[in-house]
Structures are given as structure tokens and as C-alpha cells.
Design brief:
It is a single chain. The chain has helices at 26-29, 33-46, 55-76, 90-109, 117-136, 140-158, 165-191, 221-229, 243-253, 272-280, 309-318; strands at residues 239-240, 258-259, 286-290, 320-322, 329-333. It has two domains: 2-191, no CATH class; 218-337, no CATH class. Helix content is 49%, strand content 5%. It contains eleven helices and five strands; from the N terminus they run ααααααααβαβαβαββ. It has a three-stranded antiparallel beta sheet. It has a two-stranded parallel sheet with strand order 1-2. By secondary structure, it is mainly alpha-helical. It is elongated and about 85 Å long. 37% of the residues are buried. A hairpin with a 6-residue loop joins β4 and β5 (329-333).
């Protein structure tokens, strides 16, 4: 699968400036990024003498900053990073293309000094679409459509001919086909595919990791009843190592549960002294460990407690085990440390 991640879902590949165009990230967002950047540059240049409060230039600067920030973050972030994160870039790409496309077209039809930007944009978008389609090996006809439409459009824009209105309309139609055909087909394919689970992907063969829906998880009713009946005004119903452990309890009780280790228990969100302070302040009293999960405190294979092991060791040495009436969890009462 893409990127070699679990369940055939990639984790983003190697870091680097071209990561956003690789097999994992690319088909999810990359199609129109070049023309979005070109559009931004052209609009900023053409409006360089506009007043500082010019709304169109301000809008372009806003969306360009949004796009560049995410490109840098997604290109350089190491560790676990999923391709579907790039959906955050979609508004910026759409806005920049929408704002800049008329400027690119007008620059060409009016034969300005930057008329060459249109054939450049068509060529780059066509080449990138071919690369993205090559990753999936689906729909050979779509690749040929993009190649023919993009190639003909690029050639026509380079011909030094006095172009009639009908010829310009043909060029415009071919350019739109070259740039939008593949993204539209990928979008329709994604919408038409039912996704269940986490880490979704876009395009043909779109998938998601199954059996990862924490929204369906529920904790033992005896545990929930015990925690609710013995809460004693705490801010959090209980503290646990990871969000994977907090989800069943929180969804079953409707009350806040502290996940001190983040998603899979490996994040150090609190120091031991900070956690002790919360206990002394009466904001948290019970620490719950799922006995059916590994020593990591998270789902099997999802990672260990990381920097939170010190907190867990303190809980086990200071807290007293309580019988809540069930067997799935170990519950530690930290009242003595308050």
C-alpha cells in the first residue's frame, strides 16, 4: 500500500522538500499546488503598488502563508504523520487557484509580458497529474486524456498566432480539462467509497484502517458507575495513560477523562510534579489502567508510556488499589496523596 503503513495506509514517507508530492501525500493534495503558488506570485506582483489595505492582495497573502506553513510542516515533520492531514491545505489551494486563475488568463489573452505563465501553468499541472496518476495505476484512459488535453493546450498557447475567440475558448477548455479532470475523478471516487475506521485515503482504492473506531468503544459499566458515584467533585472523572484508554470511559460516562500521554501514551504532557499538584488540588483522584492492554497502557503495538512512566510508577507506589466490581481495569485511588 501507499507508504507501507499499517493496513496498507502510508505514514508519509521520508522527510524533505518534495515530500508533499510523493506517493503517500501527493494524490491527496498535490494536483494544483504549482498553479496555486504561481497564482499567488502573479497576483502579488501585479498588485504590488496597490494600497496596503487592498483586500485581494491581503487575501492572497493570507492563503499563501497558510499553504506555505503547511507545506513546511508536512514536509519536515518526522515520526507518525498521516497523509490525510493534508486536507488542511485544501482551502488555501482552492482559494489561490480561484483568485489567481483569472489573472493568469487575462495576462495571456491580453498578451502581456507575463503571458508565458499560462503555458507554464498548464505544462506543470499536466506533468504533475501524470505523476500522481502513475502512483495509482488506475484508469489509463484518464492519463491519456490529461496528456492529450494538456499537451495540445500548451502547444496552442505557444503558437504566435492571432487567436480567434473560438480558439481561445478551446484552449481554456483544454486547460481546465488537463488541470481538473484527474482531481475531479479522484474526488468522485473518494466520495463514492464508504470509509469505516481511521486514517482514510483519497482516490481509487481509497481505504481506512478498520477496527479503529473509538467512537464505538465502551467501558465496563461497573467501572463507569463506580467512578461517577465516587467522583467527589473532581475536574476529571479519572486519569489514564492514553486517549485510546480514555475514549471508552469518556464516551460511556459523558464526563472528562485525562489522557496524560496523548493519543497513544507516548507524549509527555505533564511532569510528575504537575500531576501531583493536580491530585493535591482535588482535580483528579483515580488513575485507571486497562488490564487487558499491554504494559504500554495503549492498544497493543501502539507505543509505550514514554516520559509518563514516572507518573505511572508514582501512582502504583502511592495509590491504593480499589475494588470497583469488575476485572478489566486496575483502579488506583490517590486520595492519600491529596
Amino acid at each position: 500500500g501507499r507508504g507501507g503503513g499499517p493496513g496498507g495506509v502510508g505514514f508519509g514517507g521520508e522527510t524533505g522538500v518534495l515530500r508533499i508530492f510523493n506517493e503517500s501525500f501527493g494524490p491527496n493534495i498535490a494536483w494544483l499546488i504549482p498553479v496555486a503558488l504561481i497564482s499567488a506570485g502573479l497576483v502579488i506582483w501585479l498588485l504590488r503598488r496597490a494600497p496596503r489595505h487592498d483586500k485581494e492582495r491581503i487575501g492572497v497573502l493570507l492563503w499563501l502563508g497558510w499553504l506555505l506553513m503547511h507545506i513546511v510542516i508536512f514536509s519536515m515533520t518526522s515520526g507518525i504523520i498521516h497523509p490525510y492531514y493534508v486536507v488542511a491545505m485544501a482551502p488555501a489551494v482552492a482559494a489561490l487557484v480561484g483568485i489567481g486563475a483569472p489573472y493568469i488568463w487575462q495576462a495571456y489573452t491580453r498578451r502581456t509580458k507575463v503571458a508565458w505563465i499560462l503555458p507554464l501553468s498548464i505544462a506543470l499541472t499536466t506533468i504533475l497529474s501524470i505523476i500522481m496518476l502513475g502512483y495509482s495505476n488506475y484508469w489509463p484512459w484518464l492519463m491519456w486524456l490529461v496528456v492529450i488535453a494538456g499537451g495540445v493546450a500548451t502547444i496552442l498557447t505557444l503558437l504566435p498566432l492571432l487567436q480567434a475567440k473560438w480558439l481561445k475558448q478551446i484552449i481554456l477548455g483544454l486547460a481546465i480539462t488537463a488541470g481538473m479532470a484527474a482531481p475531479i475523478v479522484f474526488s468522485v471516487s473518494t466520495v463514492a467509497t464508504a470509509h469505516s475506521g481511521s486514517i482514510p485515503t483519497a482516490g481509487p482504492g481509497a481505504s481506512a484502517m478498520s477496527n479503529t473506531n473509538n467512537e464505538l468503544a465502551r467501558a465496563e459499566s461497573t467501572l463507569v458507575s463506580f467512578l461517577l458515584e465516587n467522583r467527589h467533585g473532581t475536574t476529571w472523572l479519572a486519569a489514564v495513560n492514553s486517549a485510546n484508554e480514555s475514549a471508552p470511559i469518556q464516551l460511556s460516562s459523558g464526563q472528562p477523562v485525562m489522557a496524560i500521554g496523548g493519543f497513544n501514551g507516548s507524549d509527555s504532557t505533564l511532569t510528575l510534579s504537575q500531576f501531583k499538584q493536580l491530585v493535591k488540588q482535588g482535580k483528579v483522584r483515580y488513575y485507571v489502567v486497562n488490564s487487558r492492554q499491554g504494559k504500554s497502557g495503549g492498544p497493543s503495538g501502539m507505543g509505550g508510556p514514554g516520559g509518563n512512566s514516572e507518573i505511572l510508577l508514582w501512582v502504583k507506589s502511592t495509590g491504593s488499589k480499589v475494588d470497583y466490581g469488575g476485572a478489566q481495569y486496575t483502579v488506583y485511588d490517590l486520595a492519600a496523596a491529596a
